[in-house]
């Protein structure tokens, strides 16, 4: 029994909001993929910290030895030693950042790649509900946040933690009592940090979300320029942008302000701690519990102790925005994939092309069915025309055959095999589509046609273009087949785009061909010319054709008439005319028009 | 226009923030003195009162620093965010004013990145400069001054080493700025591939080309990573180099110090003090590489942002456009119009002349690529003619303000472009204050009202981006309704009924006839053309014939051919 999966419910977002720590751990798991390099970075941090301490120590010792006392023996060696220490120090610093940048950028690279790959696994419905620009923002604005943080903060955090632990050990060794006094600020610190981060975490997330929304809005207004301009809606669009801009500014303002508090708070707590140590220490010294020398050294160390804390708190700003960014990336990566192929789904290498619907019902939204209880058989090599008023469900059937969506009930059989036991990829590899809005990529015309079959030779590309009647207009373009198509399709008409889409499908040489209003923008003379090529193309493959011009579908082996999501008539052109039903009236109304024209 | 003109309005908060930062810095510099006092006079002397007294002073001062720090936070965030806000708004408004020729010089994905990512970069730079970046140079200068006061001769070492180091920093910064510009360009590319994939996802899935696209993305991603790694590694070289040279300076101070001490011109204490200051300067210098990175990124982003701001808009109101000019009747004339797309060599329209009387219905027919859509786009000045004149009501359309001109035209493009939002909101694009009745009327004329009423939320139904949740025919009808609600003087329908079945189309055309406007329809269908008062036949960018159905059927071979392609043989006697 196959488990039923619905693509449309799988698009929902991850509901559990993961905490700060969880996200940081998850980012860490990416870094941990580069274990050996990471260990090297750590070693270099240890080395540079040690060498950084060794230098001043040597200087102190040298001053005692060679300045306070007037000895000169070996002074030059001290300086040489110092130079060596500093040289190594610089080298270790350089190496740690050199490696860390590599790891950080590789991590970010992996995140981008995962995001991209995951986009391709998501159901088509996911993209219908989201703005493209909003999704793009996750690559640019969110991942870039992570990138900025990983480059600098990781090393900083390492070395701060190292210094912190080292100093703490020395402090405890010097005086556990005074250490305890110093530690009084730690709970205060945590409370303060908690208060601030509970706000900033939310604010940063909000900021990134709004930035994403803004990105989406910008993208949409750029794609829709033609409408905006011809409706002179620039002021309205700018006003709406202003609202989004204002919201972004608000969340950004509070996020930055609050994170700005952190280092200031730390600084103040440090001073508090120092004064406490001095006062308590002084009291102890008076009572002879500790020596004055200990207190003097101890205060020095407690200052040492607070410096890394300060550094750490300065990193918080970037860390929080990185977490907010990473969260939004993980949100996508964690979104359920397009109903995954069933476990036992296998590739079906050679489809003959029999397509059968058995009681298929489906709806995009919960509630009324878009199509209900569809049953029909398309034999291998048959051409099937889908006819019906707009919104009847013709494109939905195409969506189901190509498995952009899975039926709510009923099954679809391909070559008598339940389509769910076939991998989507192997199925689509053997289908070709000419879709309602013909999408072309930026790139040359040649590459766009070759998209149908990536290993096609230039001759094959040209042949396909000739068959689609596109060759003549292509050769008239400035650079012929190498003409680059620009983003706004300037210089190429909608009809020409359709011709290129048809050429692309011809080149694909599929077992199942889907033509969804493939010639709607093409003039009828050109259409007649490519009709022959299309007929040739249809031969030997199962095809599904949606068209409004009935004379283009008259020759179909089977015509399925759909109204309100149901099959109301089925048969060949002649059979349907005899039935004198919906098709008959549709056809005769066109015919009447024709006769009207002829009189 | 430069970035600095955007900083200018915030000079008061910026100065205030810098002053507050100086207060913090001063407190920070005084603190060691106070600590020394607490230790020397208090703890060592065993005087607890002194400890408490000076401890109190120190706490007071640190509270002062805290207060100014917090205030600085508010002010710096205000300045940074407002600066970013202004910049984004200016950029967005500028992009809205772009002509399509302007758009063709910036990829969309790049424009988006510039408005969001680059501005964020700049905004953060300003914020960080106001908070910490200025500290480093101040600490360096302070350190040098103090060292000079202690022992001028030994401090000369700093003068020898610091200028070349500064030159080195400047050199790295210029180099890095260039590198980061490439990084942003690569980011654009990644963004571009991503955008194309999102827009074309359906096709990519349909052709199972996920892997192919993956490779394409990988190339862009590889490039971005490599360039970023390179740029960052170059900037990160600064710390080790700076530290090395500063530390070598310390060694030099020790060497000369030893000589000076031996000759008695310097005391041991002075040497120790100068070494201490050198250490402080070194510490401050280590902040520089970070500052360099931030600044060079900011420089790269600033250039990208100003590129957009300074882009010259080539299609706008001209000197002769007058406010009072508007479309009154809807008469359209083309006189010897030629048109070539910007940055293209081959002309789309050549020497096109015709005129359309007010209130007429005109059909435009022609082969795919004949220039029909291009001709349409010249009327609301989406593009400007390369040659010739387009006149409406007898006056050159350039004599009208763009806004006035476009107000009078209802343009329904071939690809029905709808926006995220409700159906109501999409209709309101045509008329902002449209009442519900007006909407229903326009929708009913466009034959979409009944469909809308069947939707779960009727006119409040939300549409996805580009109206993805509607069928092709529904989108077309909705965009026709959007144009009708304007009550335009001129209605331009660019093959906007291609996805409609014949019955719906006939009803729609009939409903259109009650609108008092000049209607120009691009169509493939003879049945539609037949109803028009006049038919324009376009071929290869030129007008080859015009007239009504009957006369064209007699005289035009092209028209006869189109007729035949749809209805078979022309009946004798027609």
TrEMBL record, chain A:
InterPro entries (UniProt xref): AAA+_ATPase (IPR003593), ABC1_TM_dom (IPR011527), ABC1_TM_sf (IPR036640), ABC_transporter-like_ATP-bd (IPR003439), ABC_transporter-like_CS (IPR017871), P-loop_NTPase (IPR027417), Type_1_exporter (IPR039421)
Pfam families assigned: ABC_membrane, ABC_tran
Domain ABC transmembrane type-1: 39-321
TM helices/strands, residue ranges: 37-63, 75-95, 154-174, 180-197, 274-298
Topological type in the membrane: Multi-pass membrane protein
Ranges where the ABC transporter domain occurs: 355-589
Keyword Lyase: no
Highest taxon, organism lineage: Bacteria
Keywords: ATP-binding, Cell membrane, Membrane, Nucleotide-binding, Transmembrane, Transmembrane helix, Transport
Primary localisation category: membrane
Subcellular location: Cell membrane
SUPFAM superfamilies reported in the protein's UniProt record: ABC transporter transmembrane region, P-loop containing nucleoside triphosphate hydrolases
MF annotations from Gene Ontology: ABC-type oligopeptide transporter activity; ATP binding; ATP hydrolysis activity
SMART domains named in the record: AAA
GO CC, any one term: plasma membrane
PANTHER family per UniProt: ATP-BINDING CASSETTE SUB-FAMILY B MEMBER 10, MITOCHONDRIAL (PTHR43394:SF1), ATP-DEPENDENT PERMEASE MDL1, MITOCHONDRIAL (PTHR43394)
Protein name: ABC transporter ATP-binding protein
Source organism (scientific name): Mesobacillus subterraneus
Lineage: Bacteria, Bacillati, Bacillota, Bacilli, Bacillales
UniProtKB/TrEMBL annotation, chain B:
Residue ranges constituting the ABC transporter domain according to the UniProt record: 332-565
A GO CC annotation given for this chain: plasma membrane
GO MF annotation: an example: ATP binding
Compartment list: Cell membrane
Positions of the ABC transmembrane type-1 domain: 15-297
Record keywords: ATP-binding, Cell membrane, Membrane, Nucleotide-binding, Transmembrane, Transmembrane helix, Transport
Transmembrane stretches, start-end: 12-34, 54-75, 132-150, 237-257, 277-295
Chain coiled-coil ranges: none
Membrane topology: Multi-pass membrane protein
Family annotation (PROSITE patterns): ABC_TM1F (PS50929), ABC_TRANSPORTER_1 (PS00211), ABC_TRANSPORTER_2 (PS50893)
Keyword GTP-binding tagged: no
Protein name (record): ABC transporter ATP-binding protein
Organism expressing this protein natively: Mesobacillus subterraneus
